[in-house]
């Protein structure tokens, strides 16, 4: 083992030790206490408009991804939504009894979670996961993408301040302040559960770490539109999904399959809401801008990700109408031969 390897192992071991001590305290919390902490995170952070705005602006400034308004909506809305989803879920003691079968489901913490934070969600990810963490009486160590490390640290410190205010261990929430691939890999080895959110290589590494893992990578949400659809409503909702935080989220709409009988009418509705349908030459320019080395590989140009249409058009050398919010490309194939 090299000195660098030894230093990495020791650094992560120290974080794990701190997190375990905090988690052992949390393991003794009552249902009432964990419910109080989940509510505190929600109302002290996600419902604090000034704090949310500050966090969103900080994330945008550091990561240069998405847009501030969407980030505000994410932290404020999604965090509260998650809280209300789990608010009444029993997570301490006997959660369910099945007397006719003589069975009972008893909850227990998993321990220390290693959570990999993508730069696309650095402002929201720690806060949403924190709600689950306290409800489950676990501790978490965040491993941020280097591009979002300061935002993750800022969110973590907000969570720690809430824990302190409500007499819970601050070390339930820790972060790798100077992240690296080596430190992330070591965290995945030493923790009890990995939650990996990000690109395919990272998720693949999590599932190969030897530690139980939940992974979520790039999405590919496909929307099907046929003659039963309200075309104007469909166009509006697809726009809302695709343009929210400039498509930073993996769950945003990605492809639209339109039935032939309504194809032209649907394109018209898209154009009404600010979409621009690219011709064959424009499509090739965009493909080259997104995948510079295709077909040798499918690596995406990072300058394209969660970027405004105006910037994407500039990088691709496209001249699009002012106010364009979506770029549409026609495709009649699927699979690796068709990167779109």
Shape: globular
What is the first-to-last residue Cα distance?
Answer: 44 Å
Counted by DSSP, the helix tally is 12
**Unreliable segments of 5+ consecutive residues:** none
* CATH class categorisation of the largest domain: Alpha Beta
Radius of gyration: 23 Å
Query: What helical percentage do the residues reach?
Result: 40-55%
SSE order in H/E notation? HHHHEEEHEHEHEHEEHEHEHHE
Write out the CATH superfamily name of the largest domain: Aldehyde Dehydrogenase, Chain A, domain 1
Strand content: 5-15%
**Count of individual beta strands:** 11
How confident is the prediction overall: mean pLDDT?
94
Give the biggest beta sheet.
5 strands, parallel
Question: Could you explain the architecture of this structure?
Answer:
This protein is an alpha/beta fold and 340 residues long. It has two domains: 3-91 and 103-216, Aldehyde Dehydrogenase, Chain A, domain 1; 274-340, no CATH class. Helix content is 48%, strand content 15%. The protein contains twelve helices and eleven strands. It has helices spanning 3-26, 31-46, 49-63, 68-86, 125-136, 149-165, 181-190, 200-207, 231-243, 263-272, 280-290, 309-316; strands at residues 94-98, 103-106, 112-117, 139-144, 173-175, 193-197, 213-216, 221-225, 253-258, 275-277, 326-328. The strands form four sheets. A five-stranded parallel sheet has the order 5-4-3-6-7, with helices on both faces. Helix 6 links the parallel strand 4 and strand 5 (173-175). Helix 2 packs antiparallel against helix 4 and helix 3 runs antiparallel to helix 6 (149-165). The model has no long low-confidence stretch (mean pLDDT 94).
